[in-house]
Specification:
The structure holds two protein chains of two kinds. Chain A is α+β, with helices and mostly antiparallel strands. Chain A is built from four helices and seven strands. In chain A, β2 and β3 form a beta hairpin. In chain B, about 40% of the residues are buried. Classes of the chains: A alpha+beta, B mainly alpha.
Amino acid sequence: MNRQGLIYTIVFTFVVSFVFVLLLAVADQQTQARVLQNQTIARQRAILSALSLPAESVEEVQEQYAAVEQLAVEDEILYRVETGRGALVAKEFAGAGLWGTISGVIGVTEGLDRVTGIEIIDQNETPGLGARIDEEWFKRQLAGERIREGTIRVGGTGDGDYDYENGKIDAITGATRTSESMQKIIKAEIDQLEQLIGGGS
Amino acid sequence: MSAVGTILKENLWTNNPIFMQVLGICSALAVTNLLTNTMVMTIGVTFVTAMSSLTVSLIRQFVPRKVRMIVQTLIIAFYVIIVDILLKAYAPDISRQLGPYVGLIITNCIIMGRLEAFAQSNPPLLSTWDGMTAGFGYMAVLLVIAFVRELLGFGSLFGVRIMPSGFVPWTIMVTAPSAFFLLGIIIWVGKTIMNREGAPA
């Protein structure tokens, strides 16, 4: 058969595409459940972490997450949990960063006097600069920070502001715009949480 | 020297994909600020280059010339998606950090370069070896760049802190331009040594 002919070329291309796409579909099907579970666990872990209930392994996450109740308030979903330190509420957020959307989870006390924590799920900030919002030292600054005048200020520079009473955290050196975005996002989320929690009870 | 040895030397040194052919530069700039990510990325590239070389070599007698490159692209894309699926299912954290770069392996010119230059006209096992060693050549250069960038940019190696606490990280090492400088230096050093070796002959 003429291997350079039109019919052969068409049939060959079709068969090759078919075979490879079929194999991909099988591989995707085989791993789908696992990928979905990974995503669910990652989301639950982020919510727990924002509520200052850290959980590492999959079992820990599932066990801790069992105590979290989901509340639909208006169009948002709140994650509420009762702890020894009173009720805590978390909410997923998404806001504009410098290069793209920053999404994550923020947790507060139900009385809205402190932020319990923040967890970043997805961001596209500059690696090594803005992307450091996902680093432990930055997020730890917010774990228990008092909310003053309805917000938390992100400013100045340093290695982290661990004074949890001053309502202020350190910005990231060289990432002014991302730090400003974080301040805006936190402010907007606290405002919204105030409405949702106030309106819900 | 046997063909196997010649291919190894060619791909690692005299015809190194990065510093002789200057291919695959985009990923050399993008993923080299952390050693762990670089390692995973280059293992991915090596796997894709080796496997697509094998596949192209196996079916080389049946491919009509007109659709040669389309078929090659299809095969490369197939293996890249397999790598992506595996990472998502079994290493979700690394998959998240590498983000879009795994998918971009498809556009790595090294892979298509080896398919066109070698696998197209050589037996399967030798082609696999050629693809694999081309991947190693790429890996070697990227790891050197990543070593310098992570050490100076973050003060750590494979995420483990090495530098003393007083060390001030070089912000430029974290951003892409530093990879340009380092790559330039590597090409300069490599070519100088090569010219010296070649001089007496």
